[in-house]
Design goal:
By secondary structure, the protein is mainly alpha-helical. The protein contains 10 helices and no strands. Helix 2 crosses helix 5, helix 7 crosses helix 8 and helix 8 packs antiparallel against helix 9. The N terminus and C terminus are likely disordered.
């Protein structure tokens, strides 16, 4: 599991999950069309085919929906790559670095410059999800370093390196970049010997 909010989402009634998914899909479509500032809650509810009371039963405002959307999108990216059901290995860590690079690249290419104001929200969601996943991996290994400290260091390193890769706009692929930085991230985990590096 990636985070406590993931556990909570899994326990929800299927109708609640379906409604949140409809609201999220409507929001994503509108975000591409109008940008965040151009979206009103009424736009989202009209597109999703629900009333405003239903929206407010699920989200406090459009900022809460944005937060949910980022968290859900990144969680789905991790799930798609099956990283949330595997164990620690250098290969899985490599795949995780690639996933973060590609996810942040897709987000930044789909955002207009005015929406850069949401980068702190994106950063928090990605780091939180990385922390939860890495902590789960570390709970199954032995290390002389605290798992919480290692997971924090690795999640910050992965996110920071992915943002550096995105900003530099090098012709280097995410795969090649992950190959280059993998030893740095693995060193944060204190597990190079365990992983057989």
């Amino acid at each position: 599991m990636l985070s406590n909010s993931h556990d909570e989402d899994e326990k929800l009634d299927p109708r609640v999950r379906r409604t949140r998914h409809m609201l999220d899909q409507a929001f994503i479509e509108l975000l591409a069309e109008k940008g965040f500032d151009g979206i009103a809650v009424q736009d989202v509810t009209d597109r999703a085919g629900v009333n405003r009371a239903t929206f407010y039963a699920h989200f406090q405002d459009k900022f809460a929906l944005l937060d949910y959307s980022i968290r859900s999108s990144f969680r789905e990216e991790i799930r798609k790559r099956l990283l949330d059901s595997c164990h620690f290995s250098l290969e899985n860590l490599h795949h995780l670095i690639v996933a973060v690079c590609e996810f942040t690249s897709n987000l930044s290419s789909n955002c207009v410059p005015a929406q850069r104001q949401f980068e702190p929200l994106v950063e928090k969601q990605i780091k939180d999800q990385l922390y939860g996943l890495i902590l789960m991996w570390l709970s199954k290994t032995e290390s002389s370093v605290s798992p919480e400290t290692s997971a924090t260091a690795a999640s910050w390193a992965i996110y920071g390196l992915a943002m550096q890769w995105n900003r530099e706009k090098k012709p280097q692929s995410a795969e090649a970049f992950a190959d280059e930085v993998l030893p740095l991230v693995a060193a944060n985990l204190g597990l190079l010997q365990v992983a057989g590096a």
